[in-house]
From TrEMBL:
It comes from Peucedramus taeniatus. Belongs to the FIBIN family. Pfam families: Fibin (PF15819). This is FIBIN factor. The gene is Fibin. One of its GO terms (cellular component) is Golgi apparatus. Its main location: endoplasmic reticulum. Keywords: Disulfide bond, Endoplasmic reticulum, Glycoprotein, Golgi apparatus, Secreted, Signal. InterPro entries: Fibin (IPR026772). Homodimer; disulfide-linked. Seems to also exist as monomers. It is found in: Endoplasmic reticulum; Golgi apparatus; Secreted. The keyword Secreted applies.
Length: 133
């Protein structure tokens, strides 16, 4: 029976070996091919650091582009504001000129109306003189 016990014990050792081998494979799969958990963590840490650096660079580029867009927008707004101000000044100058011309025309109209009344009075007097004669 010692033989049977040694056979059973041998089978148990083989079973335990298979279980340990399966656990080893499972651990190596979990460690993604690394030899130790420390090496696995160092690699994961390096990958996280690379991803952080990459995202930090991307954010910096995005911030730079945003600032550049704001500066361009500010320049465009300034240029539009200057153009609009130029148009307002031009319109104001045209209105002043129109008002000046209008006042001159009003003076000429008043003078013409006075002349017409004066000529009308002279014509009326001439007509009366003619009818009396």
């Amino acid at each position: 029976s010692l033989r049977e016990e040694l056979t059973v014990l041998g089978r148990q050792v083989e079973d335990a070996g298979r279980v340990l081998e399966g656990i080893g494979r499972s651990i190596s799969y979990d460690l993604d091919g690394e030899e130790s958990y420390g090496a696995y963590l160092r690699r994961e840490s390096a990958q996280i650091s690379d991803a952080y650096s990459s995202s930090d660079r991307s954010l910096s580029e995005l911030e730079g582009k945003f600032r550049q867009g704001q500066e361009q927008g500010g320049r465009e707004e300034s240029r539009l504001g200057d153009s609009f101000l130029g148009l307002l000044l031009h319109a104001r100058a045209l209105l002043r000129e129109t008002r000046y011309v209008s006042s001159g025309l009003r003076d000429k109209y008043d003078l013409l109306a006075l002349t017409v009344r004066s000529h009308g009075a002279r014509l009326s007097r001439l007509k009366n003189d003619y009818l009396r004669a």
